[in-house]
């Protein structure tokens, strides 16, 4: 009897040891990911990043992920989600016509800057995400209302995330307008010609701005891309379809990798920002990420910083994909 128990005991030890070895073999090698993140932090800027996977072996790597920085157009994902939720609720539709005119015209609008008329809401949302068109953004914000976007942000627990009333209100405020004042399109054009209304303000403010943290953006995409904030599968499909159109993704994700997300940037006075948040799928495993940099410096240095930023983010995402593979 003692012999049987001894054999059972030895067998249990062998099984436990084999299980431990197998578990260790399944642990991803994160040294390259950490090295890439360390390289990212060496850029001569204020930086924050966060990378997280859900399964099969959850892991995170990051640098100062709770730093609240300017993320620019990366917050447009919340406007898209709010519009699609309104479609679910019957308040709006994707094929209704939205006005494109001087009431919503805003700088940095590669799609709608010279156009006047109406177009499908679906096209407006696509322009907002695919090309970061600010006129499209303000048309979508006018349709849903900025307070409803803020309510979604609050409901999802993004306490550090902030959006402006509109991109034009943002530019007006930065140019010196009183809080809540919109210069109008003519006023914005005068500002572009150097006619400021007052002392220029920093994009890092608590009034009209686009702020968030790397951790909040990652947690948003982890939940949103699972459909947690939508009631219908077709709404999630539309959210994914449009988020997959963001042109900034394809500069940094590994070749032929499905990805969803949104980038952001600004060059205002001597303040600059680059940000990119989203999720890529690596053999069915979601890898969610956010990389943000803010810095002050001359305009002639922006191109070189962007190149270093882009290469560093690509290196980190490639390392993360290899850790999965």
**The CATH H-level homologous superfamily:** DD-peptidase/beta-lactamase superfamily
Q: Strand percentage, roughly? A: 15-25%
CATH class term: Alpha Beta
Number of domains: 1
Count of extended strands: 9
Distance between the termini: 48 Å
Tell me the radius of gyration.
23 Å
CATH architecture: 3-Layer(aba) Sandwich
Determine the number of helices (DSSP H or I, runs of at least 4 residues).
Answer: 11
Give the proportion of residues in helices.
Answer: 40-55%
Largest sheet, if any? Answer: 5 strands, antiparallel
Unreliable stretches (pLDDT < 50, length at least 5) are 9-25
Strand order of the largest sheet: 2-1-9-8-7
Mean pLDDT: 91
| SSE string | HHEEEHEEHHHHHEHHEEEH
| Overall body shape | globular
What structural class do the secondary elements suggest? alpha+beta
């Amino acid at each position: 009897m003692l012999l049987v128990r001894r054999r059972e005991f030895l067998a249990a030890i062998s099984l436990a040891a084999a299980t431990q070895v197998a578990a260790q073999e399944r642990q991803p090698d994160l040294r390259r990911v950490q090295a890439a993140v360390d390289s990212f932090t060496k850029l001569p800027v204020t930086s924050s990043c966060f990378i997280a996977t859900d399964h099969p072996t959850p892991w995170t790597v990051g640098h100062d992920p709770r730093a609240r920085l300017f993320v620019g157009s990366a917050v447009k994902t919340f406007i898209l989600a709010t519009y699609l939720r309104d479609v679910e609720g019957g308040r709006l539709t994707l094929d209704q016509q939205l006005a494109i005119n001087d009431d919503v015209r805003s700088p940095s609008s590669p799609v709608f800057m010279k156009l006047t008329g109406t177009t499908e809401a679906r096209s407006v949302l696509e322009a907002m995400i695919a090309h970061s068109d600010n006129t499209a953004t303000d048309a979508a914000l006018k349709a849903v209302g900025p307070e409803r976007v803020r309510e979604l942000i609050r409901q999802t627990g993004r306490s550090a995330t902030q959006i402006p009333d509109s991109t034009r209100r943002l530019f007006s405020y930065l140019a010196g307008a009183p809080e809540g004042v919109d210069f109008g399109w003519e006023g914005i054009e005068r500002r572009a010609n150097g006619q400021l209304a007052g002392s220029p303000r920093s994009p890092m403010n608590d009034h009209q701005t686009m702020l968030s943290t790397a951790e909040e953006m990652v947690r948003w995409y982890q939940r949103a891309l699972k459909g947690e904030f939508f009631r219908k599968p077709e709404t999630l499909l539309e959210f994914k379809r449009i988020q997959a159109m963001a042109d900034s993704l394809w500069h940094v994700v590994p070749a032929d990798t499905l990805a969803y997300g949104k980038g952001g940037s600004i060059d205002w006075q001597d303040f600059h920002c680059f940000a990119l948040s989203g999720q890529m799928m690596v053999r069915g495993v979601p890898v969610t990420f956010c990389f943000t940099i803010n810095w002050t410096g001359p305009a002639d240095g922006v191109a070189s910083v962007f190149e270093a930023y882009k290469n560093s983010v690509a290196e980190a995402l490639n390392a993360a994909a290899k850790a999965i593979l």
